[in-house]
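Figure 2 data, in text form.
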Amino acid sequence: MAYCGPRGIELDAFLRWSRRSQNAALEWAAHEALRCRGCGTHPEDWAENPHAHHAHLSDECPGCVKTHSAQQHFKELPPGQHVVLAPMPARDCPSCGPSRPTVQN
């Protein structure tokens, strides 16, 4: 289910795949699980040439700016609580209400 669930593939449908296709999907998932969650590179990316990639500054992302601003505003969050970016104005957000603080900027 670790492969099927996130992709919306019914387990019965996956089990109807050929053994070869199932193995290929599971091998690919295991390979992808080794990617760094921070930068997205895979250990194989660095194996042959440690200089194959470079780092540079990205363009400024308005969503990241807003999230950073909220993180600065709410410096002392309780464990397990995070700043999240909602794809709508606060007035339209079902998770935001009078009891939940938001940052407008």
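Caption note: The radius of gyration is 21 Å.
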